[in-house]
Amino acid sequence: MSSETMSRLPHLDAALPPDLVLAGLPAEVRRLVTIVTTLYGGSWDDCAEDIRRRRAGQPYLYRIDLAGIDELAWLHRIRTYVLARGESLAASPAPAEIRP
Questions:
Q1: pLDDT at position 8, please?
Q2: Which of 22, 36, 63, 72 has a 20 to 30 A CA-CA distance from 54?
Q3: Is 0.85 topped by the overall pTM?
């Protein structure tokens, strides 16, 4: 993940509550949050590792292919927000959001 990629992503303000941050995210990123919560038990690191494995041609759990976004850059950004806040971004994701 390049610093150029990171600089193009919007800042997730840890002063804002999770519901406001989640509502302001693009639909594809909200879907990523749902995938992490549902398939990876909320582990951003496990999801990132799975994406890296898929990109390296190794076995992986789930093919995350979200059009137009850099999944790893967003995972890093969201994980940073969650750690700063000390609470989950999506306590109860809507199951419909995981569908393509």
A1: 52
A2: 22
A3: no
